[in-house]
Structures are given as C-alpha cells and as structure tokens.
Amino acid sequence: MSRRALFGYLILNVLVTFIVMVGVLLLNEARLGATPTPVRNLLTVIITATPDPNYTPPVVYIVVTATPVSGIALQPTPPGGTPQAVPRGDVPTLDPALLPPNPEAAAGNPNACPTYTLVAGDTAIAIAQRYGVPLADLIRVNNLREADLTRLQIGQVLVIPIGGCGLATETPTPTATPSLTPSPPPTATLIPTLSAEQLKIEITRIISPGDITQEGIEIRNISGGVIEIGGWTLSDAKGNVYTFPNYQMFEGRRVVVYTRGGASTSTPLALFWGLPSAIWGDPDQVAVIRDAEGNIQARYSRRQGASVP
Predict the structure, then answer these.
(1) Is 2.60.40.1260 the CATH classification of the domain at 201-307?
(2) φ and ψ at 233, to 5 degrees?
(3) pLDDT tens, position by position, for the chain (309 residues)?
(4) Distance in angstroms (rounded) separating the CA atoms of residues 164 and 175
(5) What is the pTM of this model?
C-alpha cells in the first residue's frame, strides 16, 4: 500500500469515529431531556371552605353509666336502642314555694305534696339537697330502694317530702321501764374481837443486838384470831418508846421492829423505830409490849433470852 492510500485510510477512520461519538452524545442528551427532574420540598397548600353561618352541628348523645349512690336520670329508651343520658350541666335551683301546683300529682297524692319531674342529668342526692329534705325521706316517700336510684328515668315524677309531707307518722311503741330492785348494801366482814384473856402475843427474839444496820425485835401473834395492835407500845429499860401504827396481825403472823429508820409498806413484815443507834446491845435490856390501855402483853429479858411473865 502506498503512503498516499494509508493516509487516506486514517482520515476516514477519524471521521467515522467523530461521527459515531457525536451521535452517541446527541442520543444521550435526548434521553436526559425526556426524563423530568424531581422537585423537592414542595409547599403543601390546604384549601379551606368558608364556614356556613347557618350550619347547625349535630347533637351528640353520650352514654353515661349512673353511679350506685345517686343515679342519673336516663333518656327514655328509643325503639331498638339503648338508654342514654344527656350530660347534666348547670340546672338552676328552684324554690319549692314558687313551684306551680301539679294537678296530676295532687290527684294521686292525698297529702298534696309538691312534686318534681326529672330532667336529664338529675340525681336523687341533688334533688334532696335542692329542696332541703333528707335523702332517706325522699326514698321512703316514693317507695324506692337504694338500687332504684340508678334507674331513674327522665320524666319520672318524684314526691318531695317537704316538712315531712307524705311520710307516715309512726307511733312509737311504749317500752315498759323495768323496775329496779335495790340491792342491799354489802355486809362488811367483821373481824372477831378477842377478849383481853384471848390476846396472846410474844417476843420471840432480838436480832443482831448492837448492830444498828440489822438490829431488831421479832414479835409473833399466838392468839386464836386477828389482833389490831395500832396504838400499842414497845419500850426498853432506858425509856425508849415505840408506838405501833394501825396494823393487824393475823394468827401466827410475825413482824420485826427494826431499831433503825426505814419505810414500811401497807402490809409490812417489818416496822422501823427510827432511832439513830442500837439499843439492844446491853445484856440487861428488857423489852415490854403494852396494849392501848397500858396492859402488859409481852416481856422479853435479854439476859434470860426468852419471854418472861
């Protein structure tokens, strides 16, 4: 192949390649122009209609379940429907004196009591409070039960027992007052009084003589009964005298009269003389007990160590 022919072949290839590339670009632009570009963040426009001033909204009935205590007046049951109640709202308070007479109520009510016709939302409690009557009287005069308060109906007529109107007067049955029989006063138990010959008391021993912390003289009742030793005295040979308080000694009872001071209980087993020092340490000491009349009831010699006549 000659050089001239080779050069012409190259020129032809370049032209063909250029034409093909131009065709491809044109075809691609045509395809892109046919596909719409999506629009983002579109603005939403809401078209509202002008409200009609003559438009009346529909009435919506709300079903309300009455409470067990007061109850709510129910709308009459529509054919094939369910009893419904209308929310009560504000019901003006009425003065029963201003109510017009109700011919129907007067015809069926011999006492001519005022009546009230239930409207939507009425409750028995509210009616009783409005007229100032007890709820129990309102139930009673209308022959109702507490369970009936949950089934009150709109249009139902209730008798209002103002001032006890319509309530039957109950005559209380007199109750006989039981007669009381006075009970005799309790008989006091008397302690048998012993004669002077029966009074027997003895001094059994002297405890810890000379020790003020423990020193005392022991006495025992050997009579056949109770001895009241209040006012009796206990004395020694040196002129020390102790007067017994009001105290009963039962048969066989022992009591110790301590030389030192101390506090006695209401039924003591120990009595306290209240001296500052011991007195029974001297072997020549003699203890003597005298009754309220001054009669000697017992003697005890420290030296002999026993009671002496």
Answers:
(1) yes
(2) -130, 150
(3) 677 788 788 888 888 898 988 888 888 887 776 655 555 555 554 545 555 666 666 655 554 444 444 455 555 555 555 554 444 444 444 454 544 444 344 434 444 688 899 998 888 889 999 888 898 888 988 888 888 888 888 989 999 988 778 776 544 455 555 555 555 554 444 445 555 566 788 999 999 999 999 999 999 998 878 888 899 999 999 999 999 998 888 888 888 999 999 876 545 678 999 999 999 999 999 999 999 999 998 999 988 776 655
(4) 25
(5) 0.38
Q: Which residue's entry shows tokens 């015809």?
A: 107
Give the domain ranges of the chain.
Answer: 60-167, 201-307
Cα–Cα nearest to 71, from 125, 18, 113, 27: 125
The residue behind tokens 């109750």 is: 175
Structure tokens at 264: 């006695």
Neighbours of 87 (CB within 10 A): 10
AA identity, residue 190: L
